[in-house]
Amino acid sequence: MFKQKINIVDTTLRDGSHAVSHGFTVEQTEAIAGGLDKVGVDIIEISHGDGIAGSSINYGFSKTHEMELIKAAKNKMSSAKLAVLLLPGIGTIEDLEEGRENGAEVVRVATHYSEADVGIQHIEYAKKIGMMAVGFLMMAHMGTPEQIVEQARIFVESGADYINIADSAGYMTPDDVRARISLLKNSINIPIGFHAHNNLSLAVANSIAAVGEGATYIDASCRGLGAGAGNTQLEVLSAVLDRMGYNTGMDIYGAMDVAEDIVEPIMYRPQVIKTAPLMLGYAGVYSSFLLHTYKAAERFNLNPRDILVELGKRKMVGGQEDMIVDVAFALSQKK
Amino acid sequence: MFKQKINIVDTTLRDGSHAVSHGFTVEQTEAIAGGLDKVGVDIIEISHGDGIAGSSINYGFSKTHEMELIKAAKNKMSSAKLAVLLLPGIGTIEDLEEGRENGAEVVRVATHYSEADVGIQHIEYAKKIGMMAVGFLMMAHMGTPEQIVEQARIFVESGADYINIADSAGYMTPDDVRARISLLKNSINIPIGFHAHNNLSLAVANSIAAVGEGATYIDASCRGLGAGAGNTQLEVLSAVLDRMGYNTGMDIYGAMDVAEDIVEPIMYRPQVIKTAPLMLGYAGVYSSFLLHTYKAAERFNLNPRDILVELGKRKMVGGQEDMIVDVAFALSQKK
User: Which positions are annotated as binding substrate (chains A, B) (predicted)?
Assistant: First the structure.
């Protein structure tokens, strides 16, 4: 039987960085990157949780400069490709150049699902300097499948090597994933990837739903280490894909050992689904809304969960935090 | 839009009993049962993890006699039905009678997926004394959909009110669930239920797959508290079903609060997917095999994970633990 090759993109050292308050050390990074390389992960993403140059008062300072971590990881890697995430507006072309000098071979250019155009120059530059370039669409649950295709095409035309759809709020059900990936598969002719969050406990299921529709790059992290409820649990995903007859090329027992012996001991807390991430996934909103929502709820004597659901319905995006008070006021009038 | 009613069966105080070494107190049971009743759970299952009369040197002693817990819970419940699990051979007709006297209105008679006949008398007796009776088929991944239907029919003919399929090892993928539930739905004319374990991080996904094929009773527990990797996380499931347009009749915010405020503080450890439960789910074998497997692996210098996978392939069942050495010997000869 022909087994479809699925590329595994590990994001323990990038999305997982959020879950350790950007506190990864050189030693930890070497152990994790070296371990993941050995078990056959295809791409290892390393940078501040908010992408290169994310270390700041706004997004949290990295304990160790990410370029040091990238260089250290690269030294321990022999087969996997090293990737960085870049959010235009946070990271720049200069940061990307520095990442490449330190060993990055792949850049994932991440924009809001409706703003691929702000990433065109970064994709084009990466291709010019010989890097693999990925167009990464965040909060993709907010866009219709047609809108996602339209934005993906912008990245395709810029020269992206594959398109990655991110369920950043952990909002999607498997049906939501299938609708987006299948239309993409029928509309563009470069590979498709998927990045899940586990807010609704559906990260592995959504990832296999994406694979079922033709996605061939799947993001995951050891023990699911990542923002909020975390990402797709790497060692579980590789076991499930193997059982379903896909070829990840991975040593699945080895992946279990990296997760249990190297990553688990350095985690700050287990990646369980508590109320806050569950509500964010249920409502489909940014985690940055939480604090503002609690304040507005107190001021207008509302249940903060009702405000989150209303923010999701209105498709509020990051940067619109000051409108939360208006939404809360409107809700309080309706009561 | 018509919203299909899905009945939620909470098993925090039964399957979750495994995860707290059968240590639930009267106070904890009152708080959990009372909380679940208030948020609109339909059935609350209470008994030793291995069913009524499970308290023993073999299965672990209960800290508090389950009949005391059942009576205490009943006092705090006003709308949910109280259920007990009964494994023929462990629990008897007399235990069932005692459970009913203390407040149980439902019995779930659980047998290995291929041995429904050992539960006939318990289903018939329960119906005779006016209880709701459920035929519960364990380790259902080991049977083909046709075999599951054949066994379910035995329970249907005995008078069961619904049939519950249990993925006891947490082995199934959503496709495995769909194959079994859809054939059952087309073959029997009483309601169908599903009980998941989260070994492959697919418990919520498998539960919604079951609902998609027509299952109307779904097991879940607060924070997923249950044996091994735990069960379907109740508060997540209720949020996902709501988002998908099903009617659980539940106060989903209230369920989040019961999980976070009442259950989480009494958990011994978070319900995360470590290597041992992952391997059991990947191989599809009983947790009782683990210790024997480690011993055999040491004796024959094998990787215990290879032995587990072989045991799964050979469809070994509980009680066959002494054959693990034979399997290990055969594997060592092949090497």
Answer: 14-15, 168, 195, 286
